[in-house]
From TrEMBL:
GO cellular component labels: apical plasma membrane
GO molecular function: antiporter activity; thiamine pyrophosphate transmembrane transporter activity
Pfam families (alphabetical): Choline_transpo (PF04515)
Lineage: Eukaryota, Metazoa, Chordata, Craniata, Vertebrata
Regions crossing the membrane: 6-39, 226-247, 253-274, 306-327, 352-376, 446-474, 494-518, 596-617, 637-658
Protein's membrane topology: Multi-pass membrane protein
Gene Ontology terms describing biological process: choline transport
Descriptive protein name: Choline transporter-like protein
The organism of origin for this protein: Cyprinus carpio carpio
PANTHER family per UniProt: CHOLINE TRANSPORTER-LIKE (SLC FAMILY 44), CHOLINE TRANSPORTER-LIKE PROTEIN 4
Function: Choline transporter.
Amino acid sequence: MHRWTGVLWIIVISCTDIICCVLFMLIIAGYMVVGVLAWLYGDPRHVLYPRNSTGMFCGVGQNNDKPSVMYFDIIKCATATNIMAAALQGLQCPTTQVCVKTCPSEFWILPPSAHFPGAKPADFFNQDYCVPSFQLKDTKYVTMDIGNKELCPLFYMPTTSVLGRCLPSLGGNAYNPSNFPSNFTLPGLDVNGTLAAIRNATGDVTNSFNIKDVGLRIFEDFAKSWQWIVAGLVIAMVVSVLFLLLLRFTAPVLVWVLIIGVLAVGAFGIWYCYNEYMSLASSSLNFSNVGLTTNVQVYLQVRDTWLAFLIILCVVEAILLLALIFLRTRILIAIALIQETSKALGHMMSTLFYPIVTFVLLLVCVSYWGITALYLATSGAPVYKVVAMNTSQGDCSVIRANETCDPEMFNSTQYPTCPSARCVFINYNTEGLFQRNLFNLQIYNVFAFLWCVNFVIALGHCTLAGAFGSYYWAFSKPADIPTFPLIQSFMRALRYHVGSLAFGALILTLVQMVRIILEYLDHKFKEAQNPCTRFIMCCLKCCFWCLEKFIKFINRNAYIMIAIYGKNFCVSAKNAFSLLMRNIIRVVVLDKVTDLLLFFGKLLVVGGVGVLAFFFFSGRIQTPGTTFETAALNYYWMPIITVVFGAYLIAHGFFSVYNMGVDTLFLCFLEDLERNDGSPEKPYFMSKNLMKILNKKNKAPKTS
């Protein structure tokens, strides 16, 4: 009994920030409830599928074989009055819309002969493009009545399905005026005017190219080259791992080469500016003669410009040389820590692949947020109202304001004086407690999403810090390194420090929410702002951006201290900040040296793999014995961009682990210096290389 009580007591006193842990769990539970309610009330088909005029979805249900919606008169989408445009939502237009199997692929307009006595509508109209409830073969209407009632389109043109909407694909020669039928003109317009009206109606969606066609071509390229894209990403992964592991041996050489390279570039700049300054000795131009101009080349012809550049570069070069002389010991410490991190990675290779766990958890968070937002946006029953598609036909005053209707039961014959009356989808029902609070629930969705994302990132930092900390504080390496240090650190973080990680994530989330609100207000009132308010808004956005960066820095180091000592967030943040401020010069030197080295590594990985991908996919490198042909690709640059982007993500993932390792070992090193003195009771845990640089050593225990 005493044994179990002791175990429970240890667990309770070891857990940190329990109140925040409970609050985080409640938020997660509420987030799940919101997701369930959104799933029960929402219907994403409202967004994913187009509708016809009666509100029926295209591509599902009874219209399963009709995935696209066709507009009878797409010109009305652009020429609708402001009142109608405000009433209708989404891509709904004040014209009849029907679901079709395929979009029209040719020009057609009702010929004059269709109005002759005895003409049969079935000989002119296409049943596939007419309202489903209307049958041409059984109708008693003449062509004029069919057109006035918008039962069938009076004209159509070559269109392509874009997001399920039949829109004119204005690329190519299909809409060249020379290809228009002689009778294909809109009322009061010639052929060129008709083309201009069509372009205005369809907007930028299909202004210069066929989106779907380009997408299919790109997908086809990926299908042909995906094996080689994967091969390029594998090469990027191998190069990244080798680069990090070899830093154990190459870090001193690389760091000094990069530092000397920076000095050499500065020296070259000084020499170049001096040459330009001397070459303009006979020039009579000066700043008073030139004045203010936007032509930069003019200033380069002024001798004083190069003198200013020369002075600035000389000052910068002198500062760098002095810093190199006086900070050489700290640079050696930074190099030793980088080498030690590379050794740690060699003993704990699993840490390199932890970003995959973070990526999966972030993917879950983003997916849940997106799905919940989609279901919330489509919550509530759809509302349909009676709308006059063409008020110029007949007397439509019989339609009452905000008159609702049922699309399945609606019959236009109920309004004999208004033949263009239709039952059209307007919006979603906002009545009911759940529907009235949709905006608040969307805000909650964003807040919970940001908190979860920041928590996942915090969990990754704490897990990696715990693994690297266990390496540093192992007195005899690698014998004293715990078994499976990454898994043990992950379990410790989840078991004891969820509250502390959630606390840090909450602080960051609140700042991010303020930034989002500021961006929303700036966008909402941008046109109404005067210069003073714009300046204040800009200052606020800048201040909160800086605050977010500062909090990320504090949180990162606080998570390291939490992983090492297991204390709560506030104490860990205070101790980490105080420790860093007491060693601010070492912090700056290590940070800049590490940034320079990792930047070179990313440049090496991304640049090298990118150049290799360019030569391969452009056909400059032949691969004998393979069936891949570069000429078969439509856009050879798409695989190249994919490989370069993927290589950057891979390099960033691996190098982020390395950066976390450097930061963790650095804090451990500073703690080691302050807490220990090399005596048998308080021995140093740092490597022999670091002790040699600092002229320190562990004293041997006295023998009796």
